[in-house]
UniProtKB/TrEMBL annotation:
This is Beta-amylase. Residues 12-36 have a biased composition (Acidic residues). InterPro entries: BES1_N, GH, Glyco_hydro_14, Glyco_hydro_14_CS. One of its GO terms (biological process) is regulation of DNA-templated transcription. It comes from Prunus persica (Peach). It catalyses: Hydrolysis of (1->4)-alpha-D-glucosidic linkages in polysaccharides so as to remove successive maltose units from the non-reducing ends of the chains. It comes from the Eukaryota. Keywords: Carbohydrate metabolism, Glycosidase, Hydrolase, Polysaccharide degradation. Belongs to the glycosyl hydrolase 14 family. Its EC number is 3.2.1.2. Residues 206-219 have a biased composition (Polar residues).
Length: 618
């Protein structure tokens, strides 16, 4: 028995070593020893009970065993029950703890540099685990409670409802299958998760069984009131605290979702549905296709209005004839319209099946003044769209570039006034750059770029260089008024350049100055054009398109994003300024390439270190 107790004492010492390694103070040792003594007494008592009524002999044995334990755990001085830890053992424990902290510090440094993790400077291992869990799709509450974000995962019963609602409810109006009544009046109510109720349509013989469970997303609603299972929801509601999680089935029966908050579906029409003469190419064939779309309950269509067509021949002269006939055909079928104001050239990019250049009179100006177009370091011009350097320069027959855009948008608004008043036009997407996207044309195929090249900076026209020199002089470093000379070429890899490589010039004083200016040009251009679009289309939803440059995202510099104007290296959020600008104008954000996944990429391009999911993860 004494041998077993000696083993028990040895185990207690090992446990105390582990506690010391986890920075637990030695004062806790006394409690452990008291617990050990209680365990010994309890063990002896149980032994006595199992053997029947305790006898005098058994009591004496227990007394002797307890006395032996006190002698074993006592100090050499014989005074108390506290053990002295050898100095060498304490030093070994401290050394192990230092080694562990050094490993943690290196992990944190790597995550900050390469993973876009927002970890505090003195983060501990719990912060690392929480960050990794959140990226893996889990919800981690401040108290450490962790559960899957998806509705199919188990949820802890005692989780604070407010914390859950803040993680699972978007601060925007519920969309898709998240049907709610008109009780929502403001985004503030959404933030507080004040779900007034769930939309319940009329009964139907095609109702799903109430026991059906979903594998889809969830809705958080108030726990008050009766909320029975319903065919639209296709299952019962799980409770988390005083909130209810509405499980939505993966497949729903056909119903009328008008006047609900379901996501409307729009189909994009072919780019060349209108020819260069502003005439419909195949009206009969298009009508058949539109009827098919209507038969499958599509909400509407999206169509490009090309600047090169409507103002193609002379400045200020607009021809909307083809679009008038097209819009009339669409609206007669009770379909809605989303219109893209395309101020760029069509042709030469992925998916372009027609060629629609910029207006003829703009091309004439470009022949005499090629600096109206974006220019790379070698002096090659890109006529895909106008340089943002002439946004405020009167080089277009007495008008600035933003004035030209505004005049075109205002003409469209006046010409199709009845469609705006009737609500047939539900949204205007404003073209802000190449492919209609807010970015620099850093990856032009016509200049030899191929995936996964990093691209090149496009700031070498006369007007943007003038702006760069002015910014450098204001900073007090006039020699910074130039573009980087070690940024490689269109098809370079980051590690092949002195600017984008790990620890390269992109993170130097000059590099940070240049990239700040370069990205500021992009944000300012979007701000100017959207402010005028908001003025022209007052009362109508406007949108902007943002591209997803996912290749080289797993490198420190994010070279492809930097060349396109997104100052988003691993240690900086380059999209916050853009989103803030869009919010200022109440513009909807249209993210391109969100459908890309790493598994879809070709094996030959694994070296591109791309991560589309990481780019759009939030």
């Amino acid at each position: 028995m004494a041998t077993d107790i000696q083993k028990l004492i040895g185990t207690s010492e090992e446990d105390e070593d582990e506690e010391m390694e986890m920075d637990v103070k030695e004062e806790g040792d006394d409690d452990d020893e008291e617990d050990g003594e209680k365990n010994v007494d309890a063990t002896s008592m149980i032994a006595g009970v199992d053997g029947g009524m305790p006898t005098r002999s058994s009591n004496n044995n227990r007394f002797q065993q307890h006395h032996q334990i006190q002698e074993q755990v006592g100090t050499p001085g014989g005074g108390g029950v506290r053990r002295c830890r050898p100095i060498e053992e304490k030093e070994r424990t401290k050394l192990r703890e230092r080694q562990r902290r050094a490993i943690t510090a290196r992990i944190l440094a790597g995550l900050r540099r390469h993973g876009n993790y927002n970890l505090r400077v003195r983060a501990d291992i719990n912060d690392v685990i929480a960050a990794l869990a959140r990226e893996a799709g889990w919800v981690v509450l401040p108290d450490g409670t962790t559960f899957p974000a998806k509705s199919q995962g188990p949820r802890p019963a005692g989780v604070n409802s407010a914390a859950v609602s803040s993680q699972m409810v978007s601060p925007q109006t519920p969309a898709s299958l998240k049907g709610v009544t008109s009780g929502y009046r403001s985004s503030g109510e959404l933030n507080a998760c004040n779900m007034k109720g769930v939309f319940i349509p009329s009964s139907s013989p095609y109702d799903l069984p109430s026991s059906a469970r979903s594998q889809n997303s969830s809705i958080v609603g108030d726990g008050g009131g009766q909320t029975d299972s319903h065919p639209l929801i296709g299952g019962s509601m799980d409770n988390v605290g005083d909130k209810q999680i509405v499980d939505i089935p993966l497949k729903l029966p056909e119903r009328d979702y008008s006047n609900t908050s379901c996501i409307p579906v729009y189909v994009m029409l072919p780019l060349g549905v209108i020819n260069m003469k502003c005439e419909m190419v195949d009206p009969d064939g298009l009508l058949k296709q539109l009827r098919i779309l209507k038969s499958v309950n599509v909400d509407g269509v999206m169509v490009d209005c090309w600047w090169g067509i409507v103002e193609g021949h002379a400045p200020g002269e607009y021809n909307w004839n083809g679009y008038k006939r097209l819009f009339q055909m669409v609206c007669e079928l009770k379909l809605k319209l989303q219109v893209v104001m395309s101020f760029h050239e069509c042709g030469g990019n992925v998916g372009d099946d027609v060629c629609i250049p910029l207006p003829h009179w703009v091309a004439e100006i470009g022949r005499s003044n090629p600096d109206i177009f974006f220019t790379d370091r070698e002096g090659r011009r890109n006529p895909e769209c106008l340089s943002w350097g002439i946004d405020k320069e009167r080089v277009l027959r007495g008008r600035t570039a933003v004035e030209v855009y505004f005049d075109c948008m205002r003409s469209f608004r006046v010409e199709f006034d009845e469609y705006f008043k009737n609500g047939n036009i539900s949204m205007i997407q404003v073209g802000l750059g190449p492919c209609g996207e807010l970015r620099f044309p850093s990856c032009p195929v016509k200049h030899g770029w191929r995936y996964p090249g990093i691209g090149e900076f496009q700031c070498y026209d006369l007007y943007l260089l003038k702006s760069l020199r002015k910014a450098a002089e204001a900073r007090g470093h006039s020699f910074w008024g130039r573009g980087p000379d070690n940024a490689g070429s269109y098809n370079s890899r980051p590690h092949e350049t002195g600017f984008f490589c790990d620890g390269g010039d992109y993170d130097s004083y000059y590099g940070r100055f240049f990239l700040n200016w370069y990205s500021r040009v992009l944000v300012d251009h979007g701000d100017r054009v959207l402010s005028l679009a908001k003025l022209a289309f007052d009362g109508t939803c406007i949108a902007a398109k943002l591209s997803g440059l996912h290749w080289w995202y797993k490198t420190a510099s994010h070279a492809a994003e930097l060349a396109a104007g997104f100052y988003n290296p691993c240690n900086r959020d380059g999209y916050a300024a853009i989103v803030t600008m869009l919010k200022k104008h109440e513009a909807t954000l249209n993210l391109a390439c969100t459908e890309l996944h790493m598994l879809d990429q070709h094996e030959d391009f694994q070296e591109a270190l791309g991560d589309s999911e990481g780019l759009f993860w939030c």
